[in-house]
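Subject — a protein and its fold
Fields — amino acid sequence, C-alpha coordinates
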Amino acid sequence: MKEIVKQVKLLEHVDVDNITIKRDHYFNRAYIIDLPLDSTPDHVWQEIFEREWKSSRQLWDRKLFTMGDKLRLVTTADEMEEKLDWVKQILEQTNRGVEKYNREAEAREAQMGEQLKKQMLEEEANVERIRSMLRSRFGAL
Protein backbone atom coordinates (compact mmCIF):
# COMPACT_ATOMS: atom_id res chain seq x y z
CA MET A 1 0.00 0.00 0.00
CA LYS A 2 1.38 3.39 -0.96
CA GLU A 3 2.02 6.11 1.54
CA ILE A 4 0.50 9.47 0.65
CA VAL A 5 2.88 12.35 1.29
CA LYS A 6 1.08 15.25 2.90
CA GLN A 7 1.57 18.82 1.72
CA VAL A 8 2.88 21.32 4.25
CA LYS A 9 2.17 25.04 4.37
CA LEU A 10 2.96 28.03 6.54
CA LEU A 11 0.32 28.66 9.16
CA GLU A 12 -1.82 31.51 7.90
CA HIS A 13 -3.14 32.90 11.16
CA VAL A 14 -0.40 33.17 13.73
CA ASP A 15 0.33 35.34 16.71
CA VAL A 16 3.49 37.05 15.47
CA ASP A 17 4.43 37.86 19.05
CA ASN A 18 4.97 34.11 19.57
CA ILE A 19 7.31 33.68 16.58
CA THR A 20 10.90 33.22 17.70
CA ILE A 21 13.19 35.91 16.29
CA LYS A 22 16.81 36.07 17.42
CA ARG A 23 20.10 37.45 16.23
CA ASP A 24 22.28 35.12 14.16
CA HIS A 25 25.85 35.03 15.47
CA TYR A 26 27.34 33.66 12.22
CA PHE A 27 25.99 36.08 9.63
CA ASN A 28 26.46 39.82 9.98
CA ARG A 29 23.15 41.71 10.42
CA ALA A 30 21.13 38.49 10.07
CA TYR A 31 18.27 37.21 12.19
CA ILE A 32 16.88 33.71 12.69
CA ILE A 33 13.10 33.56 12.31
CA ASP A 34 11.13 30.37 13.09
CA LEU A 35 8.05 30.39 10.87
CA PRO A 36 5.31 27.96 12.01
CA LEU A 37 4.17 25.22 9.62
CA ASP A 38 0.72 23.60 9.65
CA SER A 39 2.30 20.18 10.33
CA THR A 40 5.62 18.41 10.70
CA PRO A 41 6.87 17.40 7.23
CA ASP A 42 7.83 13.79 6.57
CA HIS A 43 11.16 12.73 5.03
CA VAL A 44 9.85 12.73 1.43
CA TRP A 45 8.50 16.29 1.75
CA GLN A 46 11.80 17.40 3.31
CA GLU A 47 13.80 15.81 0.51
CA ILE A 48 11.72 17.59 -2.16
CA PHE A 49 11.94 20.83 -0.15
CA GLU A 50 15.74 20.61 0.08
CA ARG A 51 15.99 20.02 -3.67
CA GLU A 52 13.71 22.98 -4.44
CA TRP A 53 15.36 25.56 -2.23
CA LYS A 54 18.89 24.49 -3.10
CA SER A 55 18.12 24.75 -6.82
CA SER A 56 16.75 28.28 -6.51
CA ARG A 57 18.73 31.26 -7.69
CA GLN A 58 21.08 33.08 -5.35
CA LEU A 59 21.46 30.02 -3.13
CA TRP A 60 24.42 31.54 -1.29
CA ASP A 61 22.11 34.26 0.00
CA ARG A 62 19.33 31.88 1.08
CA LYS A 63 19.34 30.08 4.41
CA LEU A 64 16.29 27.91 5.10
CA PHE A 65 15.81 24.78 7.20
CA THR A 66 12.98 22.62 8.49
CA MET A 67 12.99 22.01 12.22
CA GLY A 68 10.02 19.93 13.30
CA ASP A 69 6.88 21.94 12.57
CA LYS A 70 8.86 25.13 11.94
CA LEU A 71 10.69 26.61 9.01
CA ARG A 72 13.85 28.40 10.10
CA LEU A 73 14.73 31.37 7.91
CA VAL A 74 17.97 33.31 8.25
CA THR A 75 17.84 36.79 6.74
CA THR A 76 18.38 40.46 7.41
CA ALA A 77 15.59 42.83 8.40
CA ASP A 78 16.01 44.68 5.08
CA GLU A 79 15.47 41.50 3.03
CA MET A 80 12.63 40.04 5.09
CA GLU A 81 9.80 40.92 2.68
CA GLU A 82 11.65 39.49 -0.33
CA LYS A 83 12.60 36.35 1.61
CA LEU A 84 9.01 35.71 2.72
CA ASP A 85 7.92 35.83 -0.93
CA TRP A 86 10.74 33.44 -1.79
CA VAL A 87 9.75 31.06 1.04
CA LYS A 88 6.16 31.03 -0.21
CA GLN A 89 7.39 30.22 -3.72
CA ILE A 90 9.62 27.39 -2.45
CA LEU A 91 6.76 25.90 -0.44
CA GLU A 92 4.46 26.03 -3.48
CA GLN A 93 7.11 24.32 -5.63
CA THR A 94 7.67 21.71 -2.92
CA ASN A 95 3.96 20.94 -2.67
CA ARG A 96 3.73 20.62 -6.47
CA GLY A 97 6.63 18.18 -6.21
CA VAL A 98 4.68 16.28 -3.53
CA GLU A 99 1.65 16.08 -5.84
CA LYS A 100 3.86 14.70 -8.60
CA TYR A 101 5.46 12.21 -6.22
CA ASN A 102 2.03 11.00 -5.07
CA ARG A 103 0.79 10.59 -8.68
CA GLU A 104 3.93 8.63 -9.60
CA ALA A 105 3.62 6.46 -6.48
CA GLU A 106 0.00 5.71 -7.37
CA ALA A 107 1.00 4.78 -10.92
CA ARG A 108 3.80 2.53 -9.61
CA GLU A 109 1.38 0.83 -7.25
CA ALA A 110 -1.14 0.26 -10.04
CA GLN A 111 1.59 -1.18 -12.26
CA MET A 112 2.79 -3.44 -9.45
CA GLY A 113 -0.80 -4.57 -8.90
CA GLU A 114 -1.08 -5.54 -12.54
CA GLN A 115 2.24 -7.37 -12.43
CA LEU A 116 1.21 -9.20 -9.26
CA LYS A 117 -2.10 -10.21 -10.83
CA LYS A 118 -0.25 -11.49 -13.91
CA GLN A 119 2.19 -13.45 -11.72
CA MET A 120 -0.67 -15.02 -9.77
CA LEU A 121 -2.43 -16.07 -12.98
CA GLU A 122 0.82 -17.57 -14.30
CA GLU A 123 1.34 -19.40 -11.02
CA GLU A 124 -2.21 -20.80 -11.12
CA ALA A 125 -1.66 -21.94 -14.72
CA ASN A 126 1.64 -23.62 -13.76
CA VAL A 127 0.05 -25.37 -10.78
CA GLU A 128 -2.77 -26.65 -13.00
CA ARG A 129 -0.24 -27.84 -15.61
CA ILE A 130 1.70 -29.71 -12.91
CA ARG A 131 -1.53 -31.27 -11.60
CA SER A 132 -2.42 -32.34 -15.13
CA MET A 133 1.00 -34.03 -15.57
CA LEU A 134 0.60 -35.75 -12.20
CA ARG A 135 -2.89 -36.99 -13.16
CA SER A 136 -1.60 -38.43 -16.42
CA ARG A 137 1.29 -40.10 -14.59
CA PHE A 138 -0.52 -41.39 -11.51
CA GLY A 139 -4.14 -41.37 -12.64
CA ALA A 140 -7.05 -39.47 -11.18
CA LEU A 141 -8.43 -40.37 -7.75
In short: The longest strand covers residues 30-36. Residues 18 and 34 are 10 Å apart (CA to CA).
